[in-house]
Amino acid sequence: MKCVDLNSDIGESYGLYKIGNDKEVIKHISSANIACGYHAGDHNVMVETVKMANTNNVYIGAHPGLPDLLGFGRREMNISPKEIYHLTLYQIGALAAITQAHGTQLVHVKPHGALYNMAARSRSIAGAIAQAVTDYNPSLILFGLSGSELIQAGKEKGLLTASEVFADRTYQSDGTLTSRTDPNAMIHDVKFAVKRIIRMVQEGKVTATDGTDIDITADTVCVHGDEPAALEFIMELKSALTKENIVIGKSWSKK
Questions:
Q1: Could you state, in order of their start, the residue ranges of all structural domains in the chain?
Q2: What is the homologous superfamily of the domain 3-254 according to CATH?
Q3: Nearest one of 176, 243, 161 to 210, comparing CA atoms
Q4: Contact, 177 vs 169, CB < 8 A?
Q5: Contact status, residue 4 vs residue 246, Cβ threshold 8 Å
Q6: What is the Cα–Cα distance from 106 to 126, expressed in whole angstroms?
Q7: Are 144 and 154 in contact, with CB atoms under 8 Å apart?
Q8: Which DSSP state fits 251?
Q9: Using one digit for the tens of pLDDT, what is the confidence trace for 19-70?
């Protein structure tokens, strides 16, 4: 019987600005990637999101991003691997302190947005993130795009990695995600997205925008919590996975 983790990026509200439907989304996922204050989130939101995850028995992950609140961390920055190491370590530590204070623990780390995409392509950036995770706690799971430099860097550091696929994003023929500047970057047809995910999990394949099939490893599936249809996506996906006898949970424990 196959098993796959279902994750969502949440805790992305900030001060008076509310993003996403976290209270409902968190009821249907197995892992939560919680923003750590740089691209989104703040200390109050982080605490409340950790509490929600704990109440719903959801694994907690740090979701560090670039220091870009205005751009939601989705704009690339010319930043050195050394600084990426520092900002990653800083954000992991911030969320870990909150989890400890509330009697729970950090399970994984998943970079956000532009930082995630930069780490998917650049071994030096991927290495900096993997090193920060290793230096903080080598037992943490490192989430990264399937087939990416981040996954390879994590393995080189001896970390347990989880290869991630996306329900609501399209892929290029090299396995990277289509840029959000492209009008075809997002998938809004829920049933179409669900069929793609089922194939990724069962066959290890996905069709790129140019029509070619590429190999992919699906340890964990992401649905973006800030999207208006996030809850519908997650509920449909959860139902479809269950019908296919695919267990939703911590898939990397079976490796």
A1: 3-254
A2: Glycoside hydrolase/deacetylase (3.20.20.370)
A3: 176
A4: yes
A5: yes
A6: 20
A7: yes
A8: G
A9: 989 999 999 999 999 999 999 999 999 999 999 999 999 999 999 999 999 9
Proportion of the chain above pLDDT 70, given as a percent: 98
pTM above 0.90, yes or no: yes
Reply yes or no on whether the pLDDT at 251 is more than 80. no
Kindly state the tokens that stand for 153.
């860097």
| Angle (CA) 92 117 239, round 5° | 80
- Calpha distance 21→69 (Å, rounded): 19
Summarize pLDDT for 155-199 with one digit per residue, the tens.
Answer: 999 999 999 999 889 999 999 999 888 988 988 888 999 999 999
| Under 8 Å between Cβ of 63 and 18 | no
- By the 10 Å C-beta count (0-12 exposed, 13-18 middle, 19+ buried), 215 is classed as exposed
Write down the residue that tokens 């793609």 correspond to.
Answer: 196
| CA 119 – CA 100 distance, rounded (Å) | 28
Task: Look at residue 253 and tell me whether its pLDDT is greater than 60.
Answer: no
Query: Reduced to 3 states, what is the DSSP secondary structure of residue 214?
Result: strand
Q: Are 32 and 59 in contact (CB under 8 A)?
A: yes
Residue 60's contacts (CB-CB under 8 Å, 6 or more residues apart) are 31, 32, 34, 50, 53, 54, 95, 99, 104, 105, 106, 107, 108
| Mean pLDDT across 224-232 | 76
